[in-house]
């Protein structure tokens, strides 16, 4: 497999020295965020990043709870509550994956063992979007390609600002086809960009 590298500053993945699109870039046409003020969008991105980091540090046992910002705390509490109420084993966390046949990359939040099944968990701090199904399908297929092991479930975990969570199982059988359609559109636009 080609070495997968990620440049944090530019949010760019490269495989074997060639830039490959991210799952987020590929699915961008499904999420019209143009009506959201840029500063609000940036705030939401920063909040999501902080919540992801807090949950990751919590799961690795490295979190200094006194360092958690007040705005992040309810989302972390929601994750801690989910961990207590839904027993699962974490198999992988914040892992970058690359699909060599379809040439895309992404970073999944958690690969877990839940009720005897390997599942993708994608943590969310905002509203639920239809693109989350194709997003988790992309991660599922890349993980399966890399590991040779089946992933049997996909979930968007909605962490809420009141300390609660909602578990959304992604079951639409068309999610993978939607992702591949977006990938074809992404390639077409890049090929014909002026």
What does this structure look like?
The protein is of the alpha+beta class. The chain has five helices and eight strands, in the order E-E-E-H-H-H-E-E-E-H-E-E-H. The chain has one domain (4-191): Trna Endonuclease, Chain: A, domain 1 (3-Layer(aba) Sandwich). The chain has a five-stranded mixed beta sheet with strand order 4-5-6-7-8, with helices on both faces. Strands 1-2-3 form a three-stranded antiparallel beta sheet, with no helix packed on it. Helix 2 packs across helix 3 (73-85) and helix 4 crosses helix 5.
Topology:
Layout: E1 4-7, E2 12-15, E3 18-20, H1 23-27, H2 38-60, H3 73-85, E4 89-99, E5 104-114, E6 117-124, H4 132-147, E7 153-159, E8 165-169, H5 175-191
Parallel strand pairs: 6-7
Antiparallel strand pairs: 1-2, 2-3, 4-5, 5-6, 7-8
Helix pairs in contact: 2-3, 4-5
Q: Which key phrases capture this entry?
A:
5 helices; 5-stranded mixed beta sheet; alpha+beta; 194 residues; globular; 3-stranded antiparallel beta sheet; Trna Endonuclease, Chain: A, domain 1
Shape: globular
What structural class is derived from the secondary structure elements? alpha+beta
Distance from first to last alpha carbon: 32 Å
Low-confidence parts: none
> How many beta-strand elements?
8
Order of helices and strands: EEEHHHEEEHEEH
Strand order, largest beta sheet: 4-5-6-7-8
What's the mean pLDDT score?
92
Question: How many domain modules?
Answer: 1
Write a concise synopsis of the structure shown:
The protein has helices at about 25, 40-60, 75-85, 130-145, 175-190, and strands spanning about 5, 10-15, 20, 90-100, 105-115, 115-125, 155-160, 165-170. It is α+β, with helices and mostly antiparallel strands and about 190 residues long. The protein has one domain (about 5-190): Trna Endonuclease, Chain: A, domain 1, CATH 3.40.1350.
């Amino acid at each position: 497999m080609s070495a997968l590298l990620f440049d944090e500053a530019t949010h760019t993945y490269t495989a074997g020295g060639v830039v490959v699109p991210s799952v987020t870039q590929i699915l961008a046409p499904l999420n019209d965020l143009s009506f959201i003020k840029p500063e609000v969008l940036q705030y939401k991105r920063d909040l999501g990043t902080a919540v992801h980091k807090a949950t990751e540090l919590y799961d690795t046992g490295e979190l200094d709870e006194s360092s958690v910002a007040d705005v992040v705390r309810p989302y972390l509490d929601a994750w801690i509550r989910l961990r207590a109420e839904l027993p699962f084993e974490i198999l992988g966390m914040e892992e970058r994956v690359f699909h060599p046949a379809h040439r895309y990359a992404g970073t999944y939040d958690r690969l877990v063992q839940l009720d005897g099944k390997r599942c993708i968990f994608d943590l969310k701090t905002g509203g639920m979007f239809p693109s989350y199904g194709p997003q988790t399908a992309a991660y599922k297929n890349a993980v399966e390609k890399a590991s040779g092991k089946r992933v049997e479930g996909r979930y968007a975990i909605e962490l809420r600002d009141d300390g609660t969570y909602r578990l959304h199982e992604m079951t639409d059988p068309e999610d993978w086809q939607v992702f591949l359609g977006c990938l074809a559109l992404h390639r077409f636009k890049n090929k014909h960009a002026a």
